[in-house]
Amino acid sequence: MNWKNITAPIIGFIVVATLILIWRAPAAPLPAACTMEAKICPDGSAVGRTGPNCEFAACPAPDDGLPMKYIKAQEWPPTTTVTDGSLVCADKKIINGTPYCVTATSEGAAGSTYTTYSYATEKNGKIITLSFVLRAVQCMNYDDQEQTECLKERAAFDVDALADRKIQSAIIK
Question: Can you give the pTM of this predicted structure?
Answer without folding.
Answer: 0.62
